[in-house]
Specification:
Layout lengths: L1 H31 L5 H15 L5 E8 L4 E8 L9 E3 L3 H9 L3 E3 L2 H7 L5 H10 L8 E9 L2 E10 L8 H63 L4 H11 L4 E5 L5 E2 L10 H8 L6 E6 L3 E11 L2 E9 L6 H41 L3 H10 L7 E10 L4 H18 L5 E6 L2 E8 L3 H20 L3 E10 L5 H17 L4 E4 L14 H12 L7 H15 L4 H8 L3 H15 L6 H17 L11
Parallel strand pairs: 15-16
Antiparallel strand pairs: 1-2, 1-6, 2-3, 4-5, 5-6, 7-8, 7-11, 9-10, 10-11, 12-14, 12-15, 13-14
């Protein structure tokens, strides 16, 4: 009787336990499906799984990641944060095989567990050991695949650290039932996550599209507004001021040719304008710049160009990145500014072309009365002293860039030279200065200004500047003669490949050879020096001796001293040179020929100090 009652009591307890498990399962099913947020679903699954598998002390859920083809930890209980770094290959260790095969694993002894984990990578083993509480050994493990239909989603794994056989077949059966429902909840949550992600992407793309459309509308609005100002001939200043009104930060346009600013209220850039132009003359892309001097200036500089021609810079003060609106205004405004500047440039060039043509016609007039009338049309009164300067820019750049450089140098000269009763203009890559004065007092002053301006230019730019100057008494109808002399002075500089300024009166005897091609002069030198024209060391010594002898005007004493040789040695060398050249330097024509050859070499080919180097 007692045994029967005990059996009935045991059955009653097992029934209560079964009801408890059923209630847990029902509660877990309801809870798991109460939300579609993946993280929340994972937490609920882990919470109820541990209530079902009561003897388990720790557990985790791994989900398959298609990108890495690995099982990734998504949630865990009973481990520290190191477990989150565990990434298991398909087929690796216990959980990798459970996922691969779709079969449960219940292992109830430590020996079998660690034998089954023998293929676990060293990295994963270290992670697992660090993640275990107090580095305990696993004594029971239960791993169940999580599948939705035929699709494997992940694996649920539970550890017991207290006793072997801590996890039972009952736990396995309950967990299998739980896992099937968990898979449904996870699948639904994943679908929800994907749908939400797609929805977020669509929403984001829609917002981006709206923003893009808004920017396009704004761009069109800005473009049309600024273009309208240009079409209405409101001028460069009006466009810059309107861009300033539209922008969130102050904008300044620095004009490369004029050297001024629009608007002019920002003064502290003026001291650094040359440096800014120097760095951006050959740049295309904008950049942020920090200028450190008496004051510190951070600014964004946008170069304005028309093809290869540098026109100026848009300068926005401040180091913070430009807003989308400010970028839009600059990008739309820059081409319109470029067109506006080139329109003004074209007007200037047309004016200078007319001035050039009028000046050329004036030069051709020989009748005094007509010449006097033509001079007054150019703004020049008839005085008796005339000065003409021709400045040319020369460099390995296109003609348009040279024209731009000529306008820049012209602006610099206008700041220095008083234009009363004078003419100053540029045409192509040349600048012409023409002035009539009462006397020669102003000649040195004007020449000094031109020299300093040419020096300033050549120190800063790779394009070479050179000038030919001519001055003299003037009578109506004789301007062309003075102009031709300035041209000859300029040509002489160009033939010598020299920079700087040359006055016609300083050309000397070279005036006779200005229009002789270098090849012809070179041929004369070869014929004159004959066998001395060689790179042999002995002949080089004789050639150098001859050059020094001529340079010292046939003074034996001065020549010997300069060559650091005895006078007798020099005498023998000169005699030998005369024999080689078949000349007699005491003969007037022979000496004149050699003297002229040395002069031409010095003038057109280089220095006298080492003549053999260039021969």
């Amino acid at each position: 009787m007692e045994r029967k009652e005990a059996l009935i009591q045991q059955l009653s307890l097992e029934n209560q336990k079964a009801q408890y498990h059923v209630m847990n399962l029902m509660e877990s099913f309801q809870a798991m499906n109460s939300t579609l947020e993946l993280d929340e679903v994972l937490k609920k699954i882990m919470h109820f799984a541990l209530k079902i598998v009561e003897t388990a002390e720790a557990g985790y859920i791994q989900m398959y990641d298609e990108h890495s083809n690995k099982l990734i930890i998504k949630t865990y209980v009973g481990f520290n944060e190191n477990i989150s770094f565990l990434k298991i290959n398909i087929g690796e260790s216990i959980t990798g095989k459970v996922f691969r095969d779709g079969c449960v694993r219940l292992i109830t002894t430590s020996e079998k567990i660690y034998n089954s984990m023998s293929d676990l990578s060293k990295e994963n083993l270290d992670i697992l050991n660090k993640a275990h509480p107090n580095s305990q050994n696993i004594k029971s493990i239960l791993a169940v695949p999580v599948s939705f239909g035929t699709k494997r989603i992940g694996v649920m794994t539970f550890h017991c650290f207290d006793i072997e056989d801590g996890l039972s077949e009952t736990d396995l059966l309950l967990l299998q039932s739980f896992a099937s429902q968990a898979a449904i909840a996870l699948h639904n949550a994943q679908l929800h996550t994907e749908v939400q992600k797609n929805l977020d992407e669509v929403t984001h793309l829609s917002q981006r599209l709206q923003e893009t459309n808004a920017l396009l509308e704004k761009r069109t609005e800005i473009h049309n507004h600024l273009t309208k100002l240009s079409v209405q001939n409101k001028g460069l200043k009006a466009i810059i001021i309107e861009m300033n009104k539209l922008m969130e930060r102050n904008l300044v346009y620095a004009d490369y040719l004029e050297g001024n600013y629009i608007p002019q209220h920002i003064k502290h850039f003026a001291e650094r304008i040359d440096d800014i132009f120097f760095f951006f003359t050959n740049k295309i892309e904008p950049a942020y710049v920090s200028i450190c001097d008496t004051i510190h200036i951070d600014c964004y500089i946008y170069p304005i160009r028309s093809g290869s021609v540098f026109l100026g810079c848009l300068i926005v003060e401040g180091s913070a990145p430009l807003s989308q609106l400010d970028k839009l205004i600059i990008e739309q405004g820059a081409p319109i500014l470029s067109l506006e500047i080139m329109k003004l440039r074209s007007q200037t060039e047309i004016m200078y072309k007319k001035t050039y043509e009028t000046y050329q016609q004036f030069l051709k007039i020989k009748n005094p009365q007509q010449a006097e009338i033509a001079a007054k049309e150019l703004g020049i009164d008839n005085h008796y002293f005339l000065q003409t300067a021709l400045i040319e820019l020369d460099g390995n750049v296109d003609l348009r860039s040279l024209e731009n450089d000529a306008l820049l140098l012209l602006t610099h000269l206008k700041e220095k030279i008083t234009l009363e009763n004078s003419l100053l203009f540029s045409y192509n890559n040349k600048i012409t200065f023409f002035s009539s004065a009462r006397d020669a007092v102003g000649e040195a002053y004007i020449t000094k200004i031109i020299e300093s301006s040419i020096k300033w230019w050549n120190e800063r730019f790779t394009v070479v500047a050179r000038a030919g100057i001519s001055t003299g008494h003037y009578y109506p109808g004789q301007a062309e003669e003075n102009h031709v002399k300035a041209e000859k002075a300029l040509l002489h500089l160009k033939n010598q490949k020299k920079k700087g300024v040359l006055h016609y009166r300083d050309i000397g005897i070279s005036i006779l050879f200005l229009h002789h091609p270098p090849e012809e002069i070179h041929s004369f030198l070869r014929e004159t020096f004959s066998l001395l024209w060689t790179s042999q060391e002995k002949k080089d010594e004789l050639l150098h001796t001859l050059f020094t002898y001529i340079q010292n005007n046939r003074s034996m004493t001065s020549t010997a001293k300069e060559l650091h040789i005895h006078t007798n040695t020099l005498y023998h060398r000169i005699k030998k040179i005369e024999d080689i050249l078949d000349m007699d330097f005491s003969h007037y024509e022979d000496y004149l020929k050699v003297q002229l050859a040395v002069y031409l070499y010095k003038t057109f080919f280089g220095s006298l100090t080492e003549p053999g180097n260039l021969m």
